[in-house]
Amino acid sequence: MMNSIVTSGRTIEEAVRQGLAILGVTEDQVDVKVLEQPSKGFLGLIGVKAAKVELTLTTNAQSESPQRTKTETKQLEVGDHPNHLVDPYEAAASFVRDVALSMGLEVEVEIVTKRDNTVLNISGSELGLLIGRRGQTLDALQYLVNIIANRHSDSFLRIILDAENFRERRRKTLEQLAMRLASKVIRSGKEMVLEPMSPQERKIIHSRLQDHPEVKTFSKGEEPNRRVVIALKNNK
């Protein structure tokens, strides 16, 4: 039977949970030895050192455990456990909570599954710090959240990170901006070059004006300074 296992995680608690899942026991049936304490780099990713723990079944638990095959009796090391034992969405939500806590914020993260993606809705106070100027901090966190979730998934996952319904409010703001600038282009006859935007925000502008009878849009420049241009259609 498998008497001990070594697992890792971003926190000691996460490493213990993974070990318990593999052994199929509860925490009162194991002795936990912390082999390595976790450390965090920038936003918990760069320079990160995982927690490493060893779980050993107690004498009573060993006597109650079913016999396993020889393959299963080896002591598992870090990275041997399958990805599906860690829920990718819970890992992503935990990361968001950790980042918020490092900023002095206590937040709740609701996981909402949709047809094409999964949304992590953040709620709490002073979320402006997590959103950042025009959503730049939220976009950066969303990028990292997708990296973390996909580390624990065999198939590609797409996660949208939202806070205080910011994504919807920002979409409406950009659509209003698009229509206002389109009217200005029609009046002046001159094209308008918008400020640099993310691919997602540029898509909102393009979509809003794609069926406009008098103006067209296109993008120019290189990331991260790529911009949307609104110009009159050539009716000739």
Automatic annotation (TrEMBL):
Gene3D superfamilies: 3.30.300.20, probable RNA-binding protein from clostridium symbiosum atcc 14940, R3H-like domain
Pfam families for this protein: Jag_N (PF14804), KH_KhpA-B (PF13083), R3H (PF01424)
Domain R3H: 168-234
Places the protein is found: Cytoplasm
Keyword Membrane: no
Keywords carried by this UniProt record: Cell shape, Cell wall biogenesis/degradation, Chaperone, Cytoplasm, RNA-binding
Primary location: cytoplasm
Annotated region described as Jag_N domain, given as residue ranges: 6-56
NCBIfam families found in the cross-reference section: Jag_EloR
Subunit field text: Forms a complex with KhpA.
Task of the protein: A probable RNA chaperone. Forms a complex with KhpA which binds to cellular RNA and controls its expression. Plays a role in peptidoglycan (PG) homeostasis and cell length regulation.
PANTHER family recorded: PROTEIN JAG, RNA-BINDING PROTEIN KHPB
Family: Belongs to the KhpB RNA-binding protein family.
Domain notes per entry: Has an N-terminal Jag-N domain and 2 RNA-binding domains (KH and R3H).
Record protein name field: RNA-binding protein KhpB
Upper classification of the organism: Bacteria, Bacillati, Bacillota, Bacilli, Bacillales
